[in-house]
Amino acid sequence: MAQSRRVERVASLIRREVSELLIGGIKDERVSQGMVSVTTVEVAGDLQHCKIFVSVFGSEDDRSQAMEGLRSASTFVKGELGRRLKMRRTPEVVFVLDRGIERGTSVLGLLNRLEEERQEKGEPAEASEL
Question: What is the CATH number of domain 2-122?
Fold first, then answer.
């Protein structure tokens, strides 16, 4: 149990530090083109590897450019994490694009469009909405 709390704590610290690095530490222009935010951090139980899930707001090109920039900055990020967190062994860092927010936004858009079409046709609201 203590092991999992330690892993969760390390994941939380990594998320905080990487979020700060995204604001001012990573100088790669490709990263700053799209709005990049850390959504989740998964750290392996042995603390040797960590996946940093990021959401990138912007076009598909902005996303791919930002991910390229993050991948090339992963060594820098690992070094900064080691320095800031003072860990004996800093985990290997892998950035992963998280499309969850993007999917949620598109689903909301579809639901809104369906509602507009229903109102245009004059259909009554669903019973669950009353």
Answer: 3.30.300.20
